[in-house]
Write a structure and sequence with these properties.
446 residues, single chain, alpha/beta, 16 helices, 9% strand, globular
Length: 446
């Protein structure tokens, strides 16, 4: 290598190193602006206010993780993660820099005092402290303190897709064995809500009297989107619906027996298409869980967002808006490739606690450089118990999201891709404006 070439190579390496160094921190003014925007949280599991002595809230998810075998948690979700000290300080005035037993006891007393003072206003109090205007609550039902417009309801619809015996699936995967009973229970609840004591005799009647009726009832009660957690129950490989085969399978096994997996899949694929089509007709967005999810037997390969490409390409579903919830991590570039569909969006909830701000910024930058109008903010806040409850996880996700977004936009500014004004505009799109447009919300209404 000549001296000239070597010198040039060293210069290039030095330049790249300096540029990378310049982007290790977010632009302070930009971060300050981003921290002030009132966000719209596309995905969370807040708890309703419960009076002392009352039954704990058990409607925060259709598939509670307590139903499956214990599994390892990622580092940031550990209850001893010291980052949660920041949440305690911000929310409850925690005065310590450790998680000592005595200090945590004081924390729990402080939390109880705030809860007793705020009562039904507590969920909204949490949002105020996080600068979140509206939180989309993924729940079986809403409840005390979770009221519009601060909280908007996202219902669960997987149960409508599994009306027959699920025993074969339960034997095939130990997580499935834990999760399916909750779906069977929820389907019975939906039937009871409609005044039905048994499944209708034909698939056509099931579709109209159960599926359509449930979706219409939920919309009347305030639902703005419906949620599929299907990847916890089967793969996301939905094929083109075959109405004739689906009807035959439904009729053959309605009264009992275990449908062969291939036959049952045909029925599920048909019902998935029917549910998503009806959601589009009713103006309800369809949220689909897509991420390397919880559970020791979770099949991450079956949660690749590209498995949904046939669904997104289906002309009959183009009036249905789909949201890839959690952004498909680790398949985030595959998710980006789907943004070219006119009705596909993604939030980055859960990435906000799986990843640190730097890692999240890398995902967000690639998305921002391609389809910024498709990106939605989300926290996936849920409860780990008294000390690390849903407000703490919401705080961690909220801080990570805003820092990661600021880092991504700072890098784009430093590389001359966007102006500062455009960076602010993009941040506002991601944190709120994209959601306002997608869900036709009235911003700022309290």
């Amino acid at each position: 290598m000549t001296t000239r070439v070597l010198t040039l190579a060293v210069f290039v390496l030095l330049f790249c190193s300096l540029k990378a160094f310049s982007q290790t921190t977010a632009d302070p003014d930009l971060l300050d602006r981003i921290s002030r925007f009132k966000a719209i949280d596309n995905h969370a599991h807040p708890l309703r206010y419960v009076v002392e002595g009352e039954k704990p809230d058990d409607e925060y998810d259709a598939l509670p993780l307590e139903a499956i075998e214990p599994f390892p948690l990622p580092a940031r979700l550990s209850p001893v993660n010291p980052e949660f000290i920041g949440a305690w300080k911000a929310l409850y005035g925690y005065g310590y820099n450790d998680m000592g037993e005595k200090h945590v006891e004081e924390l729990l007393a402080s939390k109880k005092k705030v809860l007793d003072e705020q009562r039904q206003n507590f969920p909204a109090w949490v949002l105020d402290h996080l600068n979140i205007e509206t939180m989309f609550a993924n729940r079986i039902a809403m409840g005390r303190g979770l009221v519009e417009p601060r909280f908007r309801w996202v219902s669960f619809v997987d149960a409508l897709m599994f009306p027959l015996s699920n025993e074969t699936a339960k034997r095939s995967n130990r997580d499935y064995a834990g999760f399916y009973p909750a779906e069977e229970k929820l389907l019975k609840r939906y039937l009871t809500d409609l005044g039905l004591t048994a499944l209708p005799p034909t698939l056509d009647e099931f579709a109209k009297r159960v599926v359509t009726a449930t979706l219409e009832r939920q919309k009347q009660n305030g639902v703005v989107a419906v949620k599929f957690e299907t990847a916890y129950l089967r793969l996301l490989d939905f094929d083109k619906p075959d109405a004739t085969m689906a009807s035959q399978v439904y009729s053959r096994y309605l009264k009992g027996g275990e449908p062969p997996p291939g036959d049952y899949k045909a029925l599920q694929d048909y019902l998935f298409h029917y549910i998503t089509s009806e959601a589009g007709r009713l103006g309800l967005a369809v949220h689909i869980h897509v991420i390397d999810g919880a559970g020791g037997y979770y099949r991450a390969s079956g949660s690749n967002p590209l498995l949904l490409e046939p669904t997104f390409n289906d002309p009959s579903l183009r009036r249905t808006n789909f949201v890839i919830v959690h952004g498909g991590l680790p398949y985030t570039k595959q998710t980006m490739s789907l943004f070219g569909k006119p009705n596909v969006y993604a939030d980055f909830s859960a990435q906000t606690f799986f990843l640190y701000p730097r890692g999240l910024s890398e995902v967000l930058r690639s998305w921002l450089e391609s389809y910024p109008e498709r990106i939605l903010f989300g926290t996936d806040a849920f409860s780990f118990g008294p000390s690390v409850d849903w407000p703490e996880l919401a705080w961690l996700s909220n801080m990570t999201a805003r820092q990661g977004l600021a880092l991504a936009l700072t890098g784009m500014m430093n590389d001359g891709e966007i102006t500062r004004e455009r960076a602010v505009e993009l941040a506002q799109m991601v944190l709120r404006n994209n959601a306002i447009k997608l869900y036709k919300l009235q911003p700022g209404v309290r």
